[in-house]
Amino acid sequence: MAFVVVSPGAVLTPMGMDKSGDLAVGKDTANLKVSGWAARSGYPDTVISAVDEILIGSSGAGIARCKATLTVAWSPGAGGGGFHISLMQNSTEIKGADFASGATFVALTDTPITVQPGDRLWLAVTNTTTSIWGVTATLKGGSGTYVTFDAV
Asked: Would you call 8 exposed, middle or buried from its count of C-beta atoms within 10 A (0-12, 13-18, 19+)?
């Protein structure tokens, strides 16, 4: 009888990143990739690419979450418009939301996803205020603006 040793597959690693420093997002800005990240506390095996994305190393199911916090409450001004955050997997928005007027944060919770090696998770923002009424929204750096992935 032959003896066969089977090695375990790669383990799906939880990862998370916090925004490092504030980021001003001016009027008429569409799908801006949020830049400047650091590994989030409690996620020591996080891999953040040079282009500001969490890099997934193996296959499986997990839960993605993110939160975006502003330095001041969102106010679109007299011209209207909005501020939208997008949790992205590769080039696809997997969840998104608009800031309500007066809100200081938006949280995108418990988004079930399936990942493959090389998949990328990242955050994009859109500011649709325009013209002379346009306003700048500033994402606040630190643990209040983050992206996480946890295996299930």
From this structure: exposed
Specify the CATH number for the domain of residue 137. Answer: 2.60.120
Tally of helices (H runs) and strands (E runs) in the chain: 0, 12
The reported pTM is 0.91
Which residues constitute the domain of residue 66? 15-142
What tens digit of pLDDT does each residue of 81-104 get? 999 999 999 999 999 999 999 999
Of 89, 109, 85, 87, nearest in space to 97 by CA? 85
CA–CA dist 49, 41 (Å, integer): 17
The number of distinct structural domains making up the chain is: 1
Is residue 24 in a domain?
Answer: yes
pLDDT digits over 7-30, tens only? 455 789 999 999 999 999 999 999
Distance from chain centroid for Cα 48: 12
Beta bridge partners of 107: 67
